[in-house]
């Protein structure tokens, strides 16, 4: 878990709190473990810039909300290779991409 706030209790099993030296700590952990990021665009951007993300699993929902924060800003083009996709009964596309 990466957090800027101190937490005494980590809600997920096998969690490690990272509060500083985030990129270095994640690079070390990545050599030992499979890691997942759930819902942090800012963290994803930082890790992508240091080439620390191997796989993206994106859930694409069939609705239009308008504008919002982009996962891949125009100035940081990322080329991905689609390796798997599934469509749920509700129309959600689960797409897996390799960086």
Describe this structure in words.
- The structure is a single chain.
- The mean pLDDT is 82.
- This protein is α+β, with helices and mostly antiparallel strands.
- The two termini are 22 Å apart.
- It has a three-stranded antiparallel beta sheet with strand order 1-3-2, with no helix packed on it.
- The protein has two helices and three strands; from the N terminus they run ααβββ.
- Helix content is 20%, strand content 19%.
- The chain is globular, with a radius of gyration of 15 Å.
- It has two domains: 52 residues, no CATH class; 46 residues, no CATH class.
Gist of the model:
The protein is an alpha+beta fold and 99 residues long. The protein contains two helices and three strands, in the order ααβββ.
In order across it, which strands form the biggest sheet? 1-3-2
Would you report the number of β strands? 3
Order of helices and strands: HHEEE
Rounded to the nearest angstrom, the distance between the terminal CA atoms is: 22 Å
Task: Round the mean pLDDT to the nearest integer and report it.
Answer: 82
As for the number of domains, it is 2
- The helix-and-strand class reads alpha+beta
Rg of Cα set: 15 Å
Q: How many helices does DSSP assign?
A: 2
Please state the overall shape, judged from the principal axes of the Cα atoms.
Answer: globular
Low-confidence stretches: none
Biggest sheet, in brief?
A: 3 strands, antiparallel
Beta content = 15-25%
Indicate the percent of residues in helices. 10-25%
List the helices and strands and how they pair.
Blueprint lengths: L21 H11 L8 H9 L5 E6 L20 E7 L5 E6 L1
Antiparallel strand pairs: 1-3, 2-3
